[in-house]
Amino acid sequence: MKSIRDMTAITEAYRQEIKKLIETDPKAKQVYIEMKAELAAARQLRELRKSAGLTQRVVADRMGRSQEYVSKIEHAGSDLEYSTIVRYALACGAKPRKLEFDPL
Asked: Is residue 102 part of a domain?
């Protein structure tokens, strides 16, 4: 069994490999940017639900979906359509006002 120190070193080595790939491969960089944006959106949706004091089950029931579906949304495990984001927000008792974007 590997020690925590060994696992940390392996993780850092992977990070360095990914960083090099992103710096040298435009397609890899684009995928990285998209994944980072998806994770940020998922985190924002999860925070919205939690700030409303709701469980995933309650949001799922309000959306007419399963708790597993809501979990996938919150962990960027599904490709979100705008209509899904709106339904999720409404299920949390929020009304989407605008999308905001930052320059790359």
From this structure: no
pLDDT exceeds cutoff 90 at 64: yes
| Alpha-helical segments (H) within the chain | 4-24, 26-51, 56-63, 67-74, 82-91
| Percent helix / strand / coil, the chain, rounded to 5 | 70, 0, 30
Q: How far apart are CA 24 and CA 13, in angstroms?
A: 17
Name the helix (H) or strand (E) containing 20: helix 4-24
Q: What is the CATH number of the domain that holds 11?
A: 1.10.260.40
Distance CA 92, CA 74 (A): 13
Q: What is the mean pLDDT of residues 6-32?
A: 90
**Residue 103 falls within a domain, yes or no?**
no
